[in-house]
């Protein structure tokens, strides 16, 4: 009768109470068991109070703790094997895939940032090159307009055409010839006396032309003919240079050889003379073509007098 009662009492005991009674039967405290099987006292306390399912402890770990505690207390496996330890945590097989996908998204984001940075660098470089080209063309335009502005702003009375200077030059030579030549012209007297002086009827309010005036006019013509050889001699002496530039008025002149060397480049005044014997091709820029007289290899070089800048090369 007593044996049946003990069996019923054992069946009435819970799993945790069985662990506690087995421990107390061996006269061991929870701390003693914790030191011998290396389990925390809090876990042993959970086992003895039937708290096998814990969110913070996986079911697999709790089952191992119970096995170790039962083996230490020499309890059979049949006592605790049917206990509920909660749901086992399943392995998340998609975790690695999600991590790989996140890494790929991060890499693609960095790749996109790299291409965007390269595009920004290309745009900045292009804008820098465009800015440099605009400044270069603007400086060239300003350099070209410098001569044009000089021509436009120069007073017209200073731009004396070449044709108006030659008669004055010949007149000065004539006056000097008159001063040098003797006052009497014996060879001329027969031609003058043989020339028939026309008789003209002049109005009453005008003075009649006398023979003395006619004689003086003939003498001036002869003097001009005598002076011409002197002028041609001076011109011939000036044309010995390969390139001869005579400045008859204020102008801007630039002369360069075929290698780009600047031979002359500044503003020249009336009376200046430039000569070159480089034996190369000359590149000329004349700011006021009407104010210069150019002789190349003994021949006069005609210039177009239209108020613009003259650009040409010799020989052409």
TrEMBL record:
Keyword Lipid biosynthesis appears in the UniProt entry: no
Gene3D superfamilies (alphabetical): lambda repressor-like DNA-binding domains
InterPro entries in the record: Bact_Cytoskel_RodZ, Cro/C1-type_HTH, Lambda_DNA-bd_dom_sf, RodZ-like_C
Coiled-coil annotated residue ranges, if any: none
One Pfam family from the record: HTH_25
Transmembrane segments: 112-133
Sequence ranges assigned to domain Cytoskeleton protein RodZ-like C-terminal in this UniProt record: 245-313
Tagged with keyword Hydrolase: no
Keywords on record: Membrane, Transmembrane, Transmembrane helix
Highest taxon in the source lineage: Bacteria
Protein name: Helix-turn-helix domain-containing protein
Species per Swiss-Prot/TrEMBL record: Bisgaard Taxon 45
């Amino acid at each position: 009768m007593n044996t049946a009662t003990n069996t019923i009492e054992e069946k009435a005991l819970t799993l945790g109470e069985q662990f506690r009674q087995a421990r107390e039967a061996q006269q061991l405290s929870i701390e003693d068991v914790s030191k011998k099987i290396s389990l925390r006292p809090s876990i042993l306390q959970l086992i003895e109070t039937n708290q096998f399912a814990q969110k913070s402890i996986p079911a697999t770990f709790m089952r191992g703790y119970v096995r170790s505690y039962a083996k230490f207390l020499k309890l059979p496996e049949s006592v605790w094997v049917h206990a509920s330890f909660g749901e086992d945590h399943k392995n998340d097989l998609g975790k690695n895939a999600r991590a790989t996908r996140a890494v790929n998204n991060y890499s693609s984001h960095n790749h996109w940032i790299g291409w965007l940075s390269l595009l920004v660098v290309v745009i900045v470089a292009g804008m820098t090159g465009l800015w440099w080209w605009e400044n270069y063309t603007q400086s060239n335009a300003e350099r070209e307009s410098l001569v044009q502005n000089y021509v436009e702003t120069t007073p017209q009375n200073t731009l004396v055409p070449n044709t108006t200077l030659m008669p004055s030059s010949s007149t000065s030579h004539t006056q000097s010839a008159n001063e040098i030549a003797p006052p009497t012209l014996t060879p001329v007297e027969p031609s003058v006396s043989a020339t028939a002086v026309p008789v003209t009827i002049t109005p009453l309010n005008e003075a009649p032309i006398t023979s003395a005036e006619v004689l003086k006019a003939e003498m001036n013509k002869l003097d001009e003919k005598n002076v011409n050889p002197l002028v041609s001699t001076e011109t011939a002496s000036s044309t010995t240079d390969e390139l001869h530039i005579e400045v008859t008025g204020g102008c801007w002149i630039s002369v360069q050889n075929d290698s780009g060397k600047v031979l002359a480049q500044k503003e020249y005044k009336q009376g200046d003379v430039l000569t070159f014997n480089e034996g190369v091709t000359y590149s000329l820029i004349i700011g006021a073509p009407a104010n210069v007289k150019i002789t190349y290899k003994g021949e006069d070089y005609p210039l177009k007098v239209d108020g613009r800048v003259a650009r040409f090369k010799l020989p052409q």
